[in-house]
Design brief:
Layout: E1 6-11, H1 15-25, E2 32-38, H2 42-52, E3 60-61, H3 64-70, E4 75-78, H4 85-94, E5 98-102, H5 109-121, E6 126-129, H6 136-144, E7 153-160, H7 173-176, H8 179-195, E8 205-212
Parallel strand pairs: 1-2, 1-4, 2-3, 4-5, 5-6, 7-8
């Protein structure tokens, strides 16, 4: 791929993709080009076209198979509900397309091993994104930590903008791959590991409390 622009696809046009991935991949540069987007929701795709497609054409698809057969793609960023990801990731890897998937890496250890083997056999890369550790506030915390002293206890609190956890797929162990503790706890554990990366620290006791808040006063 040396000497030419990487052709990137965004699979899943939810909040994470529209706030972060699509604006990043649509920047003017000489390294990559947003070659395609894919989402099963027609209304979401139309919103994307109205928001991001002015001035350039990005083909959109309702399913990954159609995208693969119609567009040349080198890499795909995948951000879909956890229970929908397996078939999508498998099709991309089998088509020799590199995959960067929003966490978690897979629903089960067996599923993860199958992704890794598929990536190896097709000579492509399968990676998982944990984006919180790169935010400005946590980078600032890393600079302040030396002033704290010897850290012996860490408590993590995760807030999510939903009114009723039972109404969506995130609270389901089956659909999210472990429920909110595993789904959101991933971020908290990753942050602890990234902030306290000094191997001289004997141990960290991790306490996770899930709090919900409602954006619309419900």
């Amino acid at each position: 791929m040396s000497g030419r622009m990487l052709q990137v696809a965004v699979v899943g046009l939810g909040r994470r993709s529209q706030r972060h991935a699509v604006p990043y991949f649509t920047q003017e540069n000489t390294s990559w080009r947003l070659a395609a987007v894919c989402d099963s929701s027609n209304s979401t795709t139309e919103k994307f076209k109205g928001t991001f497609s002015s001035g350039f054409h990005v083909p959109s698809f309702a399913d990954v198979s159609s995208m693969i057969s119609s567009t040349s793609v080198d890499c795909a960023y995948v951000a879909v509900p956890h229970y929908q990801s397996a078939a999508i990731v498998q099709k991309l890897l089998a088509s020799k397309i590199h995959v960067l998937k929003e966490k978690p890496a897979a629903m089960t250890a067996v599923e993860l091993e199958s992704f890794q083997e598929l990536a190896r056999s097709n000579a492509v890369t399968f990676s998982t994104a944990s984006q919180f550790r790169y935010s400005g506030q946590f980078r600032q915390m890393q600079q302040w930590l030396p002033l704290v002293g010897n850290i012996r206890f860490v408590e993590g609190i995760q807030k999510i903008p939903v009114c009723d956890l039972g109404a969506g797929w995130r609270a389901s162990r089956v659909l999210s791959g472990g429920g909110v503790l595993i789904d959101l706890g991933w971020h908290l554990v990753d942050l602890v590991l990234s902030l306290l990366s000094d191997n001289s620290i004997p141990g960290v006791e991790f306490a996770q409390t899930l709090q919900t808040w409602c954006r619309f006063n419900c």
